[in-house]
Amino acid sequence: MTALTLSTAALPGLRADAIVIGVAKGTASPAGGPVVVPGAEAVDKAYDGRLADVLETLGASGAEGEVTKLPAPTGFKTPLVVAVGLGTQPEKDAAPDTEALRRAAGVAARALFGSRKAVFALPMTDAADAGAVAEGALLGAYSFDAYKNRDDDDGKDGKKDRKAPLAEAVLAGVKSRDKAFKAAVERATAVTEELNRARDLINTPPNDLDPEAFAAVAQAAAKEHGIKVQVLDEKALAKAGHGGILGVGAGSASGPRLVKLSYTSAKAKKHLAFVGKGITYDSGGISLKPAGHNETMKCDMSGAAAVFAAVVAAARLGLAVNVTGWLALAENMPSGSATRPGDVLRMYSGKTVEVLNTDAEGRLVLADALWAASEDKPDAIVDVATLTGAMVLALGNRTFGIMANDDTFRAAVLEAAEEVGEPAWPMPLPEHLRKGMDSATADIANMGERMGGGLVAGLFLREFVGEGITWAHLDIAGPAFNEGSPFGYTPKGGTGSAVRTLVRLAEQTAAGELG
Questions:
Q1: Strand 228-232 versus strand 168-172 pairing type
Q2: How far apart are the C-alpha atoms of 469 and 477, rounded to whole Å?
Q3: Separation in Å, CA 413 to CA 188, 430, 458, 482
Q4: What is the mean pLDDT of the chain?
Q5: Phi then psi dihedrals of residue 502, to 5 deg
Q6: Residue 348 CB: number of other CB atoms within 10 A?
Q7: At what angle do helices 127-140 and 98-111 cross, to 10 degrees?
Q8: Per UniProt, where does Mn(2+) 2 bind (predicted)?
Q9: Is 198's pLDDT higher than 70?
């Protein structure tokens, strides 16, 4: 993990490998060229006030994600200046919003892989700005190298040939003794460390992360942070009647698990429950996925990873709210013992489900976990899942959908997501789609109409939420795993989508901002 330090020292005297400054896309200049934003005054002065002209000569425009490197001016102890684009500012002289700062810091951190130390001189007028820059730098510096330590053909350690992540990020102009700034940076550190742990879990190959191994990781973290943990194995699941989780895991040699993580605060007045889909590998089961759709299915436990990270982060932050996390863990494999299309499962709630498609398995494990979560009578339940390809078709690869049984709560979840910079969109639960899941054999089928499949899945889950409990469902199938190039502070591979939204919801609940 990249080290994070604060400094109020003048930029010219700081020793580092690079100084990171911000550049906006120009509405302030007649030609529309780059505009140097606050934080870089000392660098601009050393260039005789012509830094923007120099950057423009080098081809910089200030566009979001753009990186321009140039030699540091005379008198600086740092050899390199890295100008990162913030995009177009909404108004002349307007300060960049926190998400623009977060993304810019992430881009800079990625551009500085192989560097020991970098000074971030981005605009940080308040604690929220400092927290955003800290988050961006720590998330952008993420790298998953656990499986890249084998010797290459020349007998050399291949790890030596790769650039290591930025070792230290210094936030310039931030007072280490200022309580608000210090708290913002400490919060950013706790949240990003847990989010990056979620990314590690998502990126871990399924042969090393089966349900039992995931449960062991959760147990170790719970012990470290004073969180109560309970793990139900196959025998305990069978005794309790968790037919959904057992049915999905029936075809695998690796048995399923249901993990309950309970963080409690003596000051808590509210209780939140988070439920995560944790399919450590999804082959589709008997309804086998077609070729080309299996390779990234280690990420089908991203919802459980997000819930796990959020509960641990809440504990580390000492939030005045009780948070329970439920990890519904199973591996969905085809075998002679696997659940078949046409089988009927008796769920933990007592309802029976006709399984028409074994690749619609996430809703089955979530159904058992939702009912278990409901038994504790929390004030609200939020489930997180890489649930449907239909949601990806609807919203693309960077936006998750939000469904809920309460419009006010759905709006609150959306607001929390927007506040932390996670793209999300409210989705409906049309009642007419429920009829498509009627079954002649069981209480309900696990499939309904094909069109609007993401909404159908939400309607199915709603059936397993306890009466009178406020509930929201986050379908993160699009943004959970980035198969494209890195962008902003988002790496290739596991992203940790929804972690920050869940943490923000917990913070708002602790502060009494949510009903």
A1: unpaired
A2: 25
A3: 20, 19, 16, 23
A4: 94
A5: -65, -45
A6: 22
A7: 30
A8: 277, 282, 300, 361
A9: yes
DSSP collapsed to 3 states, 41-59: HHHHHHCCCCHHHHHHHCC
Binding residues: 277, 282, 300, 359, 361
Of 246, 232, 253, 258, nearest to 329 by C-alpha is 258
DSSP-assigned letter for residue 119: E
**Residue 400 pLDDT > 90, yes or no?**
yes
Residue with tokens 């982060």: 313
- For 165-317, list the strands marked E by DSSP: 168-172, 228-232, 257-263, 271-282
Cβ atoms 120, 137 nearer than 8 A: yes
Contact 222, 342 (CB under 8 A): no
pLDDT confidence bin for 292, thresholds 50/70/90: confident
Angle at 314 between CA 310 and CA 318, to 5 degrees: 170
Rounded-to-integer distance, Cα 427 and Cα 457, Å: 12
The letter for the amino acid at 363 is R
Q: How would you classify residue 226: left for phi > 0, otherwise alpha for psi between -120 and 50, otherwise beta?
A: left
CA distance 343 to 340: 5
Distance from the Cα of residue 336 to its chain's centroid: 36
**Angle, alpha carbons 415-417-420 (nearest 5°):** 110
Q: What average pLDDT does this structure show over 218-223?
A: 98
Q: What is the DSSP letter of 24?
A: E
How far are the Cα atoms of 62, 156, 383, 391, 433 from residue 457, in angstroms, in the given order? 42, 50, 12, 10, 10
DSSP conformation class of 423: -
Cα 297 to Cα 286: distance, rounded to the nearest angstrom? 15
Query: Of the candidates 292, 297, 357, 362, which has an alpha carbon nearest to the alpha carbon of residue 327?
Result: 362
**Quick one: how many helices (H) and strands (E) in the chain?**
14, 20
In the chain the first and final C-alpha atoms are separated, in Å, by 36
User: Residues 322-364: pLDDT tens digits?
Assistant: 999 999 999 999 999 999 999 999 999 999 999 999 999 999 9
pLDDT tier at 175, thresholds 50, 70, 90: confident
The catalytic residue positions are 289, 363
Number of Cβ within a 10 Å radius of residue 337: 11
pTM of the model: 0.96
Annotated binding site for Mn(2+): 277, 282, 300, 359, 361
The residue to which tokens 């948070």 are assigned:
323
Q: How far apart are CA 63 and CA 69, in angstroms?
A: 14
Q: Measure the CA–CA gap between 30 and 508, rounded to whole angstroms.
A: 43
- Per the rule left: phi > 0, alpha: psi between -120 and 50, beta: everything else, 165 is beta
Task: Identify the CA nearest to 36 among candidates 46, 54, 51, 48.
Answer: 51
